[in-house]
Amino acid sequence: MGWNILYAFFHCVLAVIYQSYWFFTMFVYYAILGLMRGITLRGRNNILKYCGIGMLGLSVVVVCLIYLSITEVRNKTYHLIVILAIAVYTFCLIIHAVIEMIRAHRSENDQIISLRNISFISAIGSVLSLERSMLGTFGNATSSFTAKMEAGTGGTAFVLIVITAILTLAKARKKAQ
Description:
Layout: H1 2-18, H2 21-42, H3 47-71, H4 80-103, H5 110-138, H6 144-176
Helix pairs in contact: 1-2, 2-3, 2-5, 3-5, 3-6, 4-5, 5-6
């Protein structure tokens, strides 16, 4: 949870430095994830319900990210250290999400299920951020291919988040009965 909050503030600082709505939106994404992790770790009742609702909130943030990808004429070029920090964090999150998926494969514990789902959703957001940053820095960010690629990746992320939210809420409802 600490790394999540630290990474959220990293995006907030980048939003100020680069005057970027994209990084500010990513800050909101990671702040919501941090809140979801906090709720999960506190072990309250209805963890799955709160986690599912939080994921639906994240899907709205992803829609904002897709909108920014489509409407911004050009991605900004970022310093190599920023790109490396995003890349390292993304790859660590992907590895962590895979480990959580394996660990929680057949678990019935609400906290473990929620943490698994949060790790998965966190990795999705990091991939979006890495793609956008790398295309702006190393690619031709003004091309229509780049816009289509970002919209396609964002759309896929949106669908995955909504499906995960629906499955989480369905599991919460089933457990409540």
